[in-house]
């Protein structure tokens, strides 16, 4: 069902990603391009996603990177995003890869799902672009079942000088100009702060991974493609809902 977004900040964010959909997957770091990147993502997803099959929710799924990875591992996947063009690309990829994934237009801060609907909620590179990231985390926890897991993959201390060169960079785009003050996590947060967010919400078995293998694999690709390697600071943080 189409979502009517009245928040002007979210309208600008969505406009950006609708525009980006056409080349999002080929912008650096969004897709898997080498054997080393494949090995890194396999290790990361094995480490952070419990054995399934699980009812899994990919929040801010974009063009479906995590949704497709999880479906390939046998999970029952729902992906939600506000940008219809990103969702259209995700749906096309799922069709092409023969994966049955439910992609829905929905706001990450106000999910159209009953409490306790999922075993896993996961998001990559989404918290930084939300106007109410802490309320979003509450919402993500709300839809998890007892024993379920929340996984957040994001970055710390965004720095334009060290960011990877892309066709277009959200943070320096016209759509984001003027709204950055209204995105509290815009510049990234260290993993310790994300862990603390989960701890105060009573999640247990909290863990973090610095994604060193992925960062190294992407640096290696940068060099191979003749790009200047960029320093990255990324992590996955997770925690479980008590039974
Ligand atoms: C950097 S992209 C990441 C996409 C995907 N998670 C990935 O890792 O490839 C950020 C995504 O968050 C989505 N997004 C931003 N604000 C959102 C909101 N309030 N609700 C749902 N999705 C949102 C954007 O449309 C975009 O697809």
Description:
The chain is 35% helix and 19% strand. By secondary structure, it is of the alpha/beta class. The protein is globular and about 50 Å long. It has 7 helices and 7 strands; from the N terminus they run H-H-E-H-E-H-E-E-H-E-H-E-H-E. The chain has a single domain, classed as Vaccinia Virus protein VP39 (Rossmann fold). It has a 7-stranded mixed beta sheet, sandwiched between helices. Helix 1 packs parallel to helix 4 and helix 2 runs antiparallel to helix 7. The chain binds S-adenosylmethionine (SAM). S-adenosylmethionine (SAM) binds next to helix 1. The site of S-adenosylmethionine has 21 residues, from helix 1.
Could you give a quick summary of the protein structure above?
This protein has 243 residues and is of the alpha/beta class. The protein has helices spanning 8-24, 35-48, 65-72, 84-96, 133-142, 191-200, 212-224; strands at 55-59, 76-81, 102-105, 118-124, 144-155, 204-209, 234-240.
Search tags:
243 residues, Rossmann fold, 7 helices, globular, binds S-adenosylmethionine
